[in-house]
Amino acid sequence: MGLRHDEIWRDTDGRPIQAHGGGLLYHDGVYYWYGENKDAENRPADTVGHRVDVIGVSCYSSTDLLTWTNRGVVLPASDNPDHDMHPSKVAERPKVVYCNTTQRFVMWLHIDKQDYRQAATGVAVADEPAGPFRYLQTIRPAGLDSRDQTVFVDNDGSAWHFASSDWNATTLVSRLSDDYQSFAGEFHRVFVDRKMEAHAVIEHDGRYWFLASGCTGWDPNPARSAVADSIIGPWTELGNPCTGPESEITFHCQSTFLFRTPDGRVIAMFDRWVKEELRSSRYVWLPVEFADGGMVIEWRDSWEG
User: Fold this and answer.
1) What pLDDT digit, counting tens, does each position of 182-237 carry?
2) How far is the C-alpha of 66 from the C-alpha of 61, rounded, in Å?
3) What is the tally of structural domains in the chain?
């Protein structure tokens, strides 16, 4: 069977899955999929042109990557107008990692105002993977602007935050504290003047692999890829890893996350944005192959799990 990429993916209750701009966590034999809940009408925005009021971060669980149970909004919006999770604000690209030291689940997300000038990160924690998550703080890495973002945990247990900075001109790589709840003070600028967003990172065979997009708003563009021997670089760009129909516009998609299954497969998660009705945006998941020093993401009509 599988999940067709041209269809709306539904949970076990038959409702459309609302987990946009998200990522996966595998814990104790269960996959947890976190993402933006956009189940509301589009509203005007100051600069981006398309938005919905913040509802919060949804969580879905599965043991087979095909059948997803809705675990609810695990980090909800706040009714306090001054809170950074108020519906009038921006909360995007949530990623959750597990900290072995504290045995807590830590969520990082892009926090902003409608004009995208706040450009910060939000941090929330939970004792269980399906929450509830408690919002801790809003911070900026090294005091710098931070927009699209992801979090990566290395084999040695160190955690790293990747974000668009310098008004998207640069990617900022920041080491997280040992509890993953703040920054450790180590920052590195990479991909300087390359203007990228929608970052995703994974380690494979001792090397670090990077996937991202250019900056064209809600409209698709050629995907970017890169490889490095160290998480902080130097990174070598490899070009568009996508192959197949309409690969030049990343299959009408934008990257959001790279993950590895327990059997060693690497999967790339993409969003296919429907900017006029964001709640109807689709998901595209495709296997990643590594060959001849590069990564290859080939089109398939469906995700088979």
Assistant:
1) 999 999 999 999 999 999 999 999 999 999 999 998 999 999 999 999 999 999 99
2) 10
3) 1
Domain extent for 224: 3-303
Cα 218 from Cα 214, distance rounded (Å): 11
Are 145 and 166 in contact, with CB atoms under 8 Å apart? Answer: yes
* Residue type, position 33, single letter: W
Q: Are 86 and 79 in contact (CB under 8 A)?
A: yes
Q: Is 223 exposed, middle or buried (0-12, 13-18, 19+ CB in 10 A)?
A: buried
Looking at residue 20, its pLDDT comes to 98
CATH for 226: 2.115.10.20
Q: Between vectors from CA 263 to CA 260 and to CA 266, what angle results, nearest 5°?
A: 30
Q: What are the start-end ranges of the H helices in 22-170? A: none
Tens of pLDDT along 129-167? 999 999 999 999 999 999 999 999 999 999 999 999 999
